[in-house]
Amino acid sequence: MPQGRGTLIFFLRGRRQMPLPEDEVQTTEKVIAKLVPSAGRIFPDGVAMELIRKSSGTSGFLIWDGHTPKIVDQFTHGEVVYATPQIHPSVCDSLALPSGLTEFGSTRQLFSEIAALISRASGGSKSVLVPLSFLVFACWFPEHAPIPPFVWVVVPATCTTAALKQVLRLLCRHAVVVNLLSASWPSSLPMGLQPTLIAEVDRPSRRLLNTLRASQTHGVYPTRAGQVVDPFAAKVIFAREPLEDPAAAGFPLEIVLAPAGEYVPPLDCGRAARVAEEF
């Protein structure tokens, strides 16, 4: 959830005698509620709200109550009005956002189709197939996990990762790809999107490892340049070397990418667009 003070909007209401929650202020004829920016969530009553890209190219919410889907610019749930987050146009353009709702068959069928894409992109490497397929599923439910999925992929010098990073960007929720990760990444990335971080590291510093470890826990807020940022996020980190001390980074699952028998190119633009649309 983005930090900072939300915009106030007004709802006409009758007078109420009961005490109000802290996020409301009662006046004679009005209740003031906070307009809260959100990248999507699943509410306790089962209603799902997901950030999507509308046919106009702008962002909105897809709302699913288990019966009827609808697309809205804002969504009121209880006493809160949710709005799409304000993000830089370049970030918005880089996101592979859903455009609607579709039938996917069974969970097993969906898992098999995702695994097939990862298998192709990794050159058939069995070591990454199952862990990364599970990560794709888990990253779509960030608020329901006590810790986020975190995979540390050791990449031998003879391996290339361009195709695998591309497929993960298309499949993961709000994926942000970073070429070389620095320790200040929580204050540099749009954390209000609840992104899936896909990044490379080269000789990680102690400070970077500390930040990665902090990002494995809810409510741990590192400070950068006077800002307090929640770094909690799903992560896939590509590195040339395994971790000397896995505890220093928050105990990620470490896997080794096996060299492919031949070069695997990234998907062309047309095929990539179809994968993003389908999944």
Question: What is the CA-atom radius of gyration, in angstroms?
Answer: 21 Å
Briefly note the structural class of the backbone. Answer: alpha/beta
| Oligomerization status of the protein chains | single chain
Q: How large a portion of the residues is in β-strands, by DSSP E?
A: 25-35%
Distance between the termini: 24 Å
Spans with pLDDT under 50 lasting ≥5 residues? 1-29
Give the rounded overall mean pLDDT: 85
Which descriptor suits the 3D outline? globular
Instruction: Find the count of extended strands (DSSP E, 2+ residues).
Output: 16
**SS field, number of helical segments:** 7
Helical fraction: 10-25%
Main sheet makeup? 5 strands, mixed
Helix-strand pattern, N to C?
A: EEEEEEEEEHHHEHEHEHEEEEH
Detailed description of the structure:
This protein is α/β, with parallel strands linked by helices and 279 residues long. The chain is built from seven helices and 16 strands. Strands 1, 2, 3, 8 and 9 form a five-stranded mixed β-sheet that branches. Strands 11-12-15-10-16 form a five-stranded parallel β-sheet, with helices on one face. The protein is globular. The model is unreliable at 1-29 (pLDDT under 50).
